[in-house]
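Researcher: I'd like a structural prediction for the single chain below. Treat it as a standalone chain; there are no partners to consider.
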Amino acid sequence: MEKETEVNLSIQRTGKNYDKRFIKAIVSLVEEGAQRREVCKQYNLGATTLDDWMKVYGSREYQQTKRQSYSKLQKRTIVTAIEEGHMSLEEARVAYRIKSTKLIQGWLRQFKKEIPDLCEVNHADMAPEKANDTGEVQALKKALEEAQLKIKALNTMIDVAEEQLKIDIRKKSGAKQSRS
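Model: Treating it as a single chain, here is the predicted structure.
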C-alpha cells in the first residue's frame, strides 16, 4: 500500500481539485485502520474534507456507520458496569460498539470528578472503634451499601432529567454563585 500511496501523491492535485485515485487511496488508508488525525496531518488535509471523502468514496459498511454520540445516562450505565466489575474496559468497548477504550476512560474520570466527596472513601476515617462488634460492622456496611445505591439512583434521575429537559442541573466546578 505504501508504494501505491507514493504514486498517488504525485497525482494528488490537478488545479484546485484532488485526483480521484489519490482520494480513493486516502479513503482506503482510513478504512484499513489509519488514524484520521495522522492521515490529515501527513497529507495536509482538513478533517471536514476527509469526512466528506469517507461519505462519498468509503465502502458501504463505512458509509452506514456514523459517529455515535452517547447520552449521560448511557455513559453512566457503562461506567457503573465497569466500576462494579461486571465488565472490563475492553468488554464494554465491544459490547457497546465504542471505537476506543480511551473514550470510556475519559468517562470514568469525568464521573469521578462530578461528586468527589461521594466517590472517594477514606477507609481510615471509617474504621470502627470496636473491631470485635461484628453486628455493628455489618449494620454499617449495609448502611453504606444503601447510601451508594441512593447515590446511583439520584445520579441516574439527574441524567434522565437533564436529557429530557435539555438543561444542565449539576453545578459545574468553579461556577460562580449568583448574588441576590
